[in-house]
Design brief:
- By secondary structure, this protein is an alpha/beta fold.
- The protein has helices spanning 2-8, 12-37, 41-58, 70-89, 97-118, 130-149, 165-188, 194-208, 216-222, 250-279, 285-302, 311-319, 325-340, 343-346, 351-365, 369-373, 379-394, 397-417, 445-449, 473-488, 500-509, and strands spanning 66-67, 153-156, 159-162, 308-309, 421-426, 432-440, 460-470, 492-496, 517-518.
- The protein has a five-stranded mixed β-sheet.
Length: 537
């Protein structure tokens, strides 16, 4: 509790103003992603409120913002559509059955994510290579940019068409003005968040100048919504009465839940890593998993869309000075206040101002240094960086990150597979010593086996592992098989400088190794499978 209290008192003024800025930026994002999922905008706004509230209080990264996200929205679409079809075809039709299915799915998502936190799986985000991280950031910046282009369209005859003429130039001018204020104001003073000032200035120009532009309200109505105004989230007791409608569809529900949980955790933990770098501090991945899961569980119970961490809004928050938990709390509470009391005012904010803010987020998010270092890093790393960026834009970030980690792991394994060596020398008593150098694991086993000429070796052979690390079961199995071959050839073999763990596994495989293993004070001590990353609270 002391840690939570301390993170509230970082810089209250900066946190409050930054939180208000984030709340304004959350509105169109939550509404847009609700439209993507095919649900009411208020469900998206409730989701953003509950995600922000819980993660700001109990999350593993003060200053990080969570809400309804597009990455999760696109996963929900098929299940919601299927649920609505089932509801329409029932003997007694059920309206919005797909939405009820979503709430039930979010309960499962929450349990999965909470379990991941208690199982301490959040630490594995630290194993993501830097090229994957840069590719993720670049790809996400492009995705954010492309999503904002949709704001340059208007609804004509029920179809979205690009703005033209004066409307387009007015939109571009207001976007440029917003970006100009955000760029120039910090050079004059850093006491006020430039994003908030930019939104207020542009909104005042359009409202008091009587300029007709696309606003938050018109955006909601064009998408089929009725407005921002709503009540407090209510307990969704009806979801416990629709379990019978899910018969035969549990496979879809469970698979969607696992995919949502994976996407949510990957985006949240990657965002946590990025905010760690921006703030030069360290958050807790395991704690964030529990907080994300709890927030999604609450969304399922109280009618929210669910979600995860939002990289764009998190960067807005950090760049505006919001480093404590208070900023996220203010953003969540302000968002709820917009729904309850300030719908009329917020609906007048021009979309151009929010687009300008997001364009500045894109500029701040994209790792421009990647162009400078692209020809200076290993070719494999460059390929990983570009591939992750492309897959993030083409598919989604979960697939991109997984693909990047797999590619990096294969490159690492291949490089290390070629590093193993065996220096040979003969002792005075005629014993041939193989001094093994390099990692012994599944990738290097074949090379390791090729180093030995069993039939040509003398009667006594020693394998010295002082400069080698046995990394996995494949390496242990390779040692066992090699020893068996020497024994079958009628020769004596000694194994020196093995780690305690390796000795235990060899003795379990065959007790006869007790006579071959030589123990000394110089034996290396490491773990075949290590949990050293788990230092988080």
């Amino acid at each position: 509790m002391r840690k939570i209290f301390n993170s509230f008192t970082f810089k209250p003024k900066d946190d409050i103003l930054s939180g208000l800025t984030v709340a304004l930026a959350l509105v169109p994002e939550a509404v847009a992603f609700a439209f993507v999922a095919g649900i009411d905008p208020l469900v998206g706004l409730y989701g953003a409120f509950m995600m922000g509230l819980i993660t700001s209080l109990f999350g593993g990264r003060p200053g990080m913002i969570s809400g309804a996200t597009g990455a999760m929205a696109v996963v929900m679409v098929h299940m919601i559509q299927k649920g609505n079809e089932v509801g329409d075809n029932l003997a007694t039709p059920v309206d919005n059955l797909g939405l009820q299915w979503l709430f039930i799915t979010l309960l499962i998502v929450g349990l999965i994510q909470i379990s991941a936190g208690f199982l301490r799986l959040g630490k594995f985000v630290r194993l993501i290579p830097h090229p994957v991280m840069m590719g993720f950031v670049n790809g996400l910046a492009i995705v954010i940019f492309l999503s904002q282009l949709g704001m340059f369209k208007e609804t004509v005859g029920g179809e979205k068409v690009w703005l033209t003429g004066n409307e387009l130039w007015l939109m571009l001018g207001l976007v440029a003005l917003t970006m100009g204020i955000m760029f120039g104001l910090p050079k004059l003073t850093k006491k006020l968040p430039s994003a908030l000032i930019a939104i207020v200035v542009v909104a005042c120009i359009t409202i008091f100048g009587g300029i007709e532009v696309s606003t938050v309200g018109s955006f909601i109505r064009d998408g089929g919504g009725s407005g921002l105004e709503g009540s407090l989230p209510t307990f969704q007791s009806q979801i416990f009465g629709v379990f019978d409608t899910m018969s035969g569809h549990w496979g879809l529900i469970i698979s969607t839940a696992f995919l949502l949980a994976a996407v949510g955790l990957i985006e949240s933990l990657m965002t946590l890593n990025l905010v760690d770098e921006l703030t030069d501090s360290r958050g807790s991945g395991n704690r964030e998993c529990v907080a994300q899961g709890s927030a999604n569980l609450l969304n399922g119970l109280f009618g929210g869309m669910g979600g995860c961490a939002m990289i764009g809004q998190s960067i807005i928050n950090v760049k505006s000075g919001g480093r404590g938990r208070l900023s996220g709390l203010v953003a969540a509470v302000a968002l709820l206040c917009f729904i309850l009391f300030g719908a009329g005012l917020i609906e007048q904010i021009p979309i151009a101002a929010l687009v300008g803010v997001m364009f500045m987020v894109v500029i701040g998010t994209f790792a421009w240094s990647s162009f400078r270092i692209l020809n200076k890093i290993p070719v494999a790393d460059a390929v990983v960086l570009i591939t992750v960026s492309a897959i993030t834009v083409w598919m989604d970030l979960a697939i991109a990150v997984i693909a990047g980690v797999i590619m990096s792991a294969l490159v690492f394994a291949w490089k290390n597979a070629t590093m193993i060596r065996a220096r040979k020398r003969i002792k005075e008593d005629g014993t041939k010593v193989y001094e093994i150098w390099g990692p012994l694991f599944f990738g290097s086993v074949q090379t390791f086996n090729s180093k030995f000429k069993i039939q040509d070796d003398p009667e006594r052979v020693e394998l010295d592992f002082i400069e080698s690390r046995v990394s996995d079961h494949s390496g242990i199995e390779a040692i066992k098989n090699l020893a068996d071959k020497y024994i079958d050839a009628g020769k004596k073999i000694r194994l020196t400088h093995l780690s305690p763990e390796c000795k235990v596994l060899l003795l379990k495989a065959d007790p006869k190794f007790k006579d071959m293993i030589e123990t000394s004070i110089d034996d290396p001590r490491y773990h075949v499978v290590t949990d050293l990353m788990d230092s988080e609270v």
